[in-house]
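JOB MANIFEST
job_type = single_chain_structure
chain_count = 1
residues = 242
[input]
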Amino acid sequence: MKNFLQKVLNFLLPPRCICCGKILDNENSLCPECFQRITFISEPYCSHCGIPFADIENINVKMLCPNCIKEKKHLFRMERSAIKYDAVSKKTILAFKFMDKTENAKIFAKWLKIAGKDIFTLGADVLIPVPLHYRRLIKRRYNQSALLTLELSKLTKIPADVFSLIKFKPTKPQVRFTGKARRKNVKGAFKIKTPERIKGKRVVLIDDVLTTGSTVRECAKVLLSAGAASVDVLTVARVYRS
């Protein structure tokens, strides 16, 4: 019955490519042409932050990038992202984030599951989204990171916690700032509402885009202060120079 209803729904509202809007024969959500244009992040990459290594192929040894070698103390256990944030992926991310294309969460969650394989292999206890301040949540009507977290939880069977980490301090959009200004903008903006649900847990922090990492770092600090055993970061896209 479920398959029959799905076929009827697909006939009435055929699945479309989330990039170009072309009608598809299946529910993959990307047409072949757009699939080829999306830059998926794959190995070889830094074993800690997940940044791809340029001009290195067919290497099976785990390596660290220069930045991770310099960093004496790592806040995150691992960072992973599914795709590169560029002109092609930007359109789908922004549509999901600001234009009510919440159905994109399903395919993004599938990509997150693949991108997070290293994290899940090490073990994860709970998925937690980067929260929105309640004023922005009311204005936008949904938290895109929470939608990703709930969809990924269905795929991985890892529990989702969308209430423990909260943003109690309103901040300006990070896109307005760069570097140190981004860190200053989100400093002290987050807190843990229920630390007993965090203590001893291996947390996977979920967000849509990783740019400088200022927001997820601030979130990780309060999670670790609340007793989290570790924090990993998993995002749909990330900004990097190839």
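[summary]
The chain has one domain: 28-238.
The CA atoms of residues 128 and 145 lie 9 Å apart.
exit_status = 0
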